[in-house]
Write a structure and sequence with these properties.
The protein is α+β, with helices and mostly antiparallel strands. It has five domains: 95 residues, DNA Primase, Chain A (Alpha-Beta Complex), CATH 3.90.580; 129 residues, DNA primase DNAg catalytic core, N-terminal domain, CATH 3.90.980.10; 114 residues, Dna Topoisomerase Vi A Subunit, Chain: A, domain 2 (3-Layer(aba) Sandwich); 68 residues; 136 residues, DNAb Helicase, Chain A (Orthogonal Bundle), CATH 1.10.860. Helices cover 54% and strands 11% of the residues. The protein contains 26 helices and 16 strands. The strands form four sheets. Strands 1-2-3-4-5 form a five-stranded antiparallel β-sheet. A hairpin with a 2-residue loop joins strand 1 and strand 2. The longest helix is centred in the last third of the chain and has 28 residues. The structure holds zinc ion. The site of zinc ion has 8 residues, from loops.
């Protein structure tokens, strides 16, 4: 399903990129662009730019970029048609009748996942699923909770789901695309999830996007999750966020696994979420920031759990979240604690939970023997390093007092050690960012591996031509006169953009980044954002001549490589191009 270019252009015109981005990012004017802190990677200096004239955004740090549609796709985690729908709602513009709804393939896959969830759920209450149901009850879940989460059971069979879904009219390739079945060695397929209790993973819009399946004994793997699919990115979703997002407290509890989250939810802590079988990611931290200002990490009490908590805290802090870490006395996890001591006791525990810095200082303290001078020095040096990362001087002062007390030194001595460390820390952060920005590899090659240039020099000339075409559509005639067309480009995706721009120029249309968003993949749009964000060096005529010359030289070189006489090749090239250019005009 496609939208018309006219509709996309009109909608983009009503959704000014500055207005839309400002809803998520604080922008400040600098030169002809707006700059802010990138919402897609963690940084201290704003390398995220918005150009209102071209209606594009581009991050010089991580390479994110594109039109207003790409921005919404990226920040709201939507497909292109969903982003169009989102912006149309925002602008109060009705979608053209044939454009309504999300793309057909995606819709069908979502239905398949929903039907699979229904199949697992129904199996759980059948004789076949009895063993799963008993298991969940044995873990302390109430029937109402099982229903609320739509928990299910995958039978101990090779083809139950496969048969049930193909009977409903779904194809094997659709089932395979969602990771529900896998190919066997005889050319057939078998169910991926077998003899497991099933946890549907539901996004914030209520779609079933994936599954987690847990064994009921000690066999491995304990959890099996859906692979990355068109519907599911595990680094960009959180389990139970569909419930937690409704919590009014602006606080989330980050638990270690599905069972912990469900137990917390059953006890009334609906703000509990978990990552999906992998370590917490920056994207998940950003996602949490949309619904919360504070995160309480409630991982297992054992060493592995506490180490994971420390790592999660390091990911959450830069997303501007207040982080606290829960210590569960006398129990291995929150589930066990609540079952033994009840909801009120856990609530009190939450209120008392240590903030991240206390937790860190205690961990450092445990590594040193504070009864010796050597141990105290070691502790104070490590503590100063950790405290140097706090951005608030008030917080630095307060924690410095506590650490100084433990280490038995004056606070001022520790504070000056912290300041020294902080200057070094800030220098390091800044250097890292600058290095990333200036890295030659980064500045000449697309971020996405699939788009990498084979011939960087020629591709740069092709980029230059695209930038010129978007600034001056009349440059299309110069290109034509030189006999250069998209077919001469070495980079496939630059070729595609060039063909589109020339087509628009020929039809007398102005070039719109909105219509291009439908035509190009998001990573291609990001690269276009980068190309169009390059500063305009002026003197378009001579720049254009240089670009054309480079492309012609490359063609001559290729002719040599294929065994033609270089001089003849060069001469033929010019002849051919001239006649080609002439016949077109
Ligand atoms: Zn970025």
């Amino acid at each position: 399903m496609a939208f018309s270019d006219t509709f996309l252009d009109e909608l983009a015109a009503r959704c000014d990129i500055y207005e839309i981005v400002s809803r998520y990012v604080t922008l400040k004017k600098s030169g002809s662009n707006w700059f802010g802190l990138c919402p897609f990677h963690t940084e201290k200096t704003g390398s995220f730019s918005v150009n209102t004239e071209k209606q594009i955004y581009h991050c010089f740090g991580c390479g994110a970029g594109g039109s207003v549609y790409n921005f919404i796709m990226q920040i709201e985690n939507l497909t292109f048609p969903e982003a169009v729908e989102f912006l149309a709602n925002l602008a109060g513009v009705p979608l053209p009748a044939q454009d309504a709804g999300v793309s057909d393939n995606r819709k069908r896959l979502l239905e398949l996942n929903r039907d699979a969830a229904r199949f697992f759920y129904q199996t759980l209450s059948s004789p076949e699923g009895r063993v799963g149901y008993e298991y969940l009850l044995g873990r302390g879940l109430k029937p109402g909770t099982i229903k609320r989460y739509g928990l299910g059971f995958a039978p101990d069979s090779w083809d139950s789901l496969l048969n049930a879904m193909t009977e409903k009219g779904y194809t094997k390739s659709e089932l395979r695309e969602l990771g529900l079945i896998k190919p066997n060695q005889r050319g057939g397929f078998y169910d991926q999830f077998r003899n497991r209790v099933m946890f549907p993973i539901i996004d914030i819009r209520g779609n079933v996007i994936a599954f987690g399946g847990r064994v009921m004994d000690d066999s491995k793997p304990k959890y099996l999750n859906s692979p990355e699919t068109k519907l599911f990115s595990k680094s960009r979703n959180l389990f139970s966020l569909n419930f937690a997002k409704k919590s009014a407290s602006r606080r989330l509890i980050l638990a270690e696994g599905y069972m912990d989250v469900i137990a917390l939810n059953q006890a009334g802590f609906t703000e509990a979420v978990a990552s999906l079988g992998t370590a917490l990611t920056q994207e998940q931290a950003k996602l949490m920031k949309r619904f919360a200002d504070e995160v309480v990490i409630s991982y297992d009490a054992d060493n592995a759990g506490q180490n994971a908590a420390a790592r999660a805290a390091e990911i959450l802090k830069p997303a501007d979240l207040k982080v606290r870490i829960l210590k569960i006395p006398g129990a291995k996890d929150p589930d066990e604690f609540i079952r033994e001591h009840g909801r009120e006791a856990f609530s009190a525990l939450l209120e008392r939970s240590e903030d991240h810095m206390e937790f860190t200082l205690e961990r450092i303290r445990n590594n040193f023997d504070l009864t010796t001078d050597e141990g105290r020095v070691g502790f104070l040096k490590e503590a100063a390093k950790a405290l140097a990362r706090l951005s608030s001087p008030i917080e630095r002062e307060i924690y410095a007092s506590r650490a100084a007390e433990s280490g038995n030194v004056g606070k001022d001595a520790l504070l000056s050690e912290i300041e020294r460390n902080r200057r070094a820390y800030l220098r390091r952060v800044k250097n890292e960012e600058t290095r990333r920005l200036l890295s030659p590899e980064k500045s000449v090659q697309p971020v996405s591996r699939a788009l990498r240039y084979e011939d960087v020099r020629t591709a740069r000339a092709e980029e230059g031509i695209i930038a010129l075409l978007s600034r001056e559509p009349a440059f299309a005639q110069t290109l034509q006169a030189a006999g250069i067309g998209p077919e001469d480009f070495t980079s496939p995706f630059l070729k595609k953009i060039c063909a589109f721009l020339l087509e628009q120029a020929q039809a007398g249309n102005s070039v719109s980044s909105g219509a291009l968003s439908q035509f190009l993949a998001p990573e291609e749009m990001s690269e276009l954002g980068r190309i169009l964000s390059a500063p305009d060096m002026g003197d378009h005529q001579s720049a254009g001549r240089d670009y054309i010359r480079i492309i012609q030289e490359t063609q001559a070189k290729h002719a040599v490589a294929s065994g033609e006489d270089p001089l003849l090749a060069m001469r033929d090239l010019h002849k051919e191009k001239k006649s080609y250019g002439g016949s077109l005009s």
